Amino acid sequence: MSSAVVPELPWLLPGALTRATPVARRTTRDWLVDGLAFLLALGWVLLAFGDSVGPAPEFALNAGPSWLNEVDLVVGLLTTAALWLRRRWPVALAVASLPLAVFSVTAAVALLIILFTVAVHRPFPVAAALVGAHLLVTPVYNQVRPDPALPFWAAMIWTASFLGGVLAWGMFVRARRQLVTSLRERAHRAEAEQQLRVAQARQLERTRIAREMHDVLAHRISLLSLHAGALEFRPDAPPEEVARAAGVIRASAHAALQDLREVIGVLRAEVGGAEVETPERPQPTLADVPALIGECRAAGVRVSTEDLVVEPATVPAAVGRSAYRIVQEGLTNARKHAPGAVVRVRLAGRPGDGLTVEIRNPWPVGEPPEPAIPGAGTGLVGIAERVTLAGGRLAYGRDLAGDFRLAAWLPWPA
């Protein structure tokens, strides 16, 4: 059934005479449910009327004046036809059909369907009030159309059981739909929050890289200022010193432009209102990877290393920092998800071929023996952003050998 809520009395709303009330279109499922409800109510109309005019009326479902049977047939057919409007005006139909509950037998099923619709689509106080109103007219109905097979109080209990069952069933369906809607909204919200966390992780990684480049740029520019000042205050310096200072200025300017180009690539958005912060300690490089592995070994992690880097002293500082962060993230993930496993770290590369960093550990079997280390799940996102900004490639996941593999290639110019 459609869950759209539409006012039952649109003519009472301001401006309703000048604009139409939007109504949700029925889905295929709605048409099937409405058709089944219509056929069920129509079948009861025909059954009840045929029983009341049969050859043995003393065995009729309900007794009463003979002329009332023809009126009841018309009322039952009209109420059954009104079921097609129950989605739009369930409360209005329940109120309008209340007088029919005084005498109509043929409209009984249609009335129950209308009350069920009210219980599904309207709050509990509204549904309970309408069910209570229909229950209050039950004594009058039993006086007008007494049941020859049941005494008065038995008929009252029977009718109250039907009305209570319809109300309970409708409230159950309503609660279940609200639960499904709530779970769907929570899933959408969790997905949106995860995307936001990923975006924040990327932005934080860009900011972190920009801070790392601060010291390098400051060093280049201060070197430029120093040599330019020397040329300004000593214009009569020997040509050899002028040429040497000019060469240093040219090399420093070229390196500063390269670093500045990396910073501009990181800072894609304009940042305003930045506060002065305490300078961070010097950032790690490739030469600090052995110390990092030593710290992990001291903490109990079994790490095997394979260093095949040719001329490691010539690795650019930015590439070395990225390699350090990749090894750090790989060892952290191994401690979190595969405690006790042997972690293999492999470094290889040469100028012109690039630097390859690979961390591999066996895939964990079963649950970890101790509580898992909590994490936000954005570490690999930040590493991927760092490698992409450096112009490299990153791959991670389970390989054909069944191990978890984190591998990155970083450009290393000749």
From TrEMBL:
Give the EC number: 2.7.13.3
* Entry's Gene Ontology cellular component terms: membrane
* Domain Signal transduction histidine kinase subgroup 3 dimerisation and phosphoacceptor, residue spans: 205-270
Q: Its catalytic activity?
A: ATP + protein L-histidine = ADP + protein N-phospho-L-histidine
Q: Which GO terms describe its molecular function?
A: ATP binding; phosphorelay sensor kinase activity; protein dimerization activity
Q: Which UniProt keywords apply?
A: ATP-binding, Kinase, Membrane, Nucleotide-binding, Phosphoprotein, Transferase, Transmembrane, Transmembrane helix, Two-component regulatory system
- The keyword Transmembrane is annotated on this UniProt entry: yes
Which Pfam families does this chain map to? Answer: HisKA_3
Q: Which residues form the signal peptide?
A: none
List where the protein spans the membrane: 31-47, 67-85, 92-118, 153-172
Q: What is this protein called?
A: histidine kinase
Which species expresses this protein natively?
Micromonospora palomenae
